[in-house]
Specification:
By secondary structure, this protein is an alpha/beta fold. The chain has two domains: about 200 residues, Spore Coat Polysaccharide Biosynthesis Protein SpsA, Chain A, CATH 3.90.550; about 90 residues, no CATH class. Helix content is about 45%, strand content about 15%. Strands 1, 2, 3, 4, 5, 6, 7, 8 and 9 form a nine-stranded mixed beta sheet that branches.
């Protein structure tokens, strides 16, 4: 199998070189496509990185789905069988991460996979919970039959570290290039509705987490709401309310079990901020462009997709 790792980057730190090194250390010997939107790596000794190519685009050209589609197109032109998508701040936990990630695709168990995300060292207790809640230690295969029971969780899929069989990726049209975020969730929905399976591979691990401020949580969840408002019929059956309540309930139990009751007010504040932002995002069509840009984490989206 010919495997390509696609990584969009913008002002990356030294983690990007760890990701490249971990990828090149794999026995699968993948090819790597780096899509730069700020030319921050232009000064590096790129010739030292065998099977690694760097492509530059302007910042105005970047969007979550379209930039990854560009990397996938470049990889497919070179004969890719499997497309692996990474983000610039997700560092593999060990050298076997890639083999474990693509094994279900190689055996035919699934056409797409995604890895477990571990909290970075020093992550807050609430962020540790978020990683544990969304990325448990048990692997699971999902298919179309799971949608009614799992709701939105059936479509949970993360491009922080994922893999998709290349022919299926293009059969389904690649990522949408007009969504503000969650292009990976849309891809998962297309995969499941087409009758294919996805596997969450807990054995493949990357270190990746963010301790967002309340302001950042607001802006991010405004964009999540905007995404769901614009998602259309592809996410039918993906009710989100129950999952949000379960998250808060389990988060309260988590902090209490670790003797941190003083965090309960922050849990409540975060939940209120997320809910308010999500509801505003779902109603973004009623808001002026200038307001949407101030509320959004991905403000460039609104310039690219003016109504």
């Amino acid at each position: 199998m010919k495997i390509f790792v696609v990584i969009p980057v913008y002002k990356p730190d030294k983690k990007i070189w760890k990701i490249i090194d971990y990828s090149r250390a794999s026995n699968l010997k993948p090819y790597i496509k780096i899509i730069e939107s700020d030319q921050s790596l232009i000064f590096t000794s790129k010739e030292l990185y065998v099977n690694t190519e760097f492509f530059n685009i302007s910042q105005d050209e970047f969007n979550h789905g379209g930039t990854r589609n560009l990397g996938a197109k470049l990889a497919s032109q070179s004969g890719a069988d499997v497309l692996v998508f990474m983000t610039q701040d997700a560092v593999p936990h060990d050298s076997g991460w890639l083999e474990k990630l693509v094994e279900p695709i190689r055996t035919g168990e699934a056409v797409a996979t995604f890895a477990r995300q571990l909290p970075r060292p020093g992550a807050s207790l609430l962020e540790q919970f978020s990683r544990d809640f969304n990325y448990p230690s048990i692997s699971r295969v999902r298919d179309r039959q799971d949608i009614p029971a799992m709701g939105v969780k059936a479509f949970f899929f993360s491009n922080v570290c994922s893999a998709v069989r290349a022919d299926v990726f293009w059969e389904l049209g690649g990522f949408p290039d007009n969504v503000i975020m969650n292009e990976d969730m849309m891809m998962a929905a297309k995969i499941l509705r087409a009758g294919y399976s996805i596997k969450y591979v807990a054995e493949s691990e990357v270190v990746h987490s963010h301790d967002y401020t309340l302001k950042q949580q607001f802006r991010r969840n405004f964009d999540v709401g905007a995404f769901f408002a614009d998602a259309g019929s592809m996410l039918d059956g993906a009710a989100v309310g129950g999952e949000g309540l379960r998250f808060v309930r389990e988060q309260v139990r988590y902090v209490l079990s670790r003797g941190r009751p003083a965090l309960i007010p922050l849990v409540v504040a975060e939940a209120a901020v997320k809910f308010t932002a999500f509801q505003l995002g779902k109603r973004h069509r009623f808001l002026p462009l200038s307001v949407k840009k101030r509320m959004s984490m991905h403000s460039y989206h609104w310039d690219q997709h003016k109504e």
